[in-house]
Amino acid sequence: MNYVGTRGGAAASLSEAVRHGAAPDGGLYMPAVLPALDPAQFDAQAPLAEFAPRLLEPFFAGDRLAPKLSAICAEAFDFPMPLVTPDPARPGLRALELFHGPTLAFKDIALHSLFRAGGPVAATASARMNSSPCARRAMQISPRPGCSIRRSR
């Protein structure tokens, strides 16, 4: 799978997109083509560490990180993310609680998988939001040579 910058930048592999953080055109990377996913192919009851590799597989296709996907997910999703019914009057309504990670922020989900991908990674953290503490904590839990955090302005 190739990734392109949202402002018309050149294509990059998943590994390149992760390594660079932002696209050279100043935008974000996104898949050049979104894969078709069949919900019937997924076990909704599977733990997230097992569900995630199956969901993410098309986005890793052809990349050097593809063989590591299961291990990345097993390490990254090692804290509880319960699926709850927030309103008993609406039993079909479900919500995934994303605030049970080490920093109690939903950003733990993305940052822990990013730093576990290995290799040099540059994460851009917002100076106005709580991204910086989450990114620092993710790097402490899973240190990798060459990883850095850049603060946006």
Describe what you observe in this structure.
It is a single chain. The chain is of the alpha+beta class and 153 residues long. The protein is 32% helix and 12% strand. It has helices at 14-20, 48-60, 69-76, 107-116, 131-141; strands at residues 3-5, 29-31, 83-84, 95-96, 122-125, 148-151. A two-stranded antiparallel sheet has the order 1-2. A two-stranded antiparallel sheet has the order 3-4. The chain has a two-stranded parallel ribbon with strand order 5-6. Helix 4 (107-116) packs parallel to helix 5 (131-141).
Entry summary:
Helix content is 32%, strand content 12%. With 153 residues, it is α+β, with helices and mostly antiparallel strands.
Count of helix runs: 5
Order of helices and strands: EHEHHEEHEHE
Low-confidence stretches: 120-130
- How many strands? 6
> Biggest sheet, open or closed, and with what strands and sense?
2 strands, antiparallel
User: What Rg is obtained from the alpha carbons, in whole angstroms?
Assistant: 16 Å
- Compute the average pLDDT: 75
Task: Give the end-to-end Cα distance, rounded to a whole number of Å.
Answer: 31 Å
Q: Sum up the overall morphology in one term.
A: globular
**Spatial strand arrangement across the major sheet:** 1-2
> Beta-strand percentage?
5-15%
Question: Which helices and strands appear, and what pairs or packs with what?
Answer:
Layout: E1 3-5, H1 14-20, E2 29-31, H2 48-60, H3 69-76, E3 83-84, E4 95-96, H4 107-116, E5 122-125, H5 131-141, E6 148-151
Parallel strand pairs: 5-6
Antiparallel strand pairs: 1-2, 3-4
Helix pairs in contact: 2-3, 3-4, 4-5
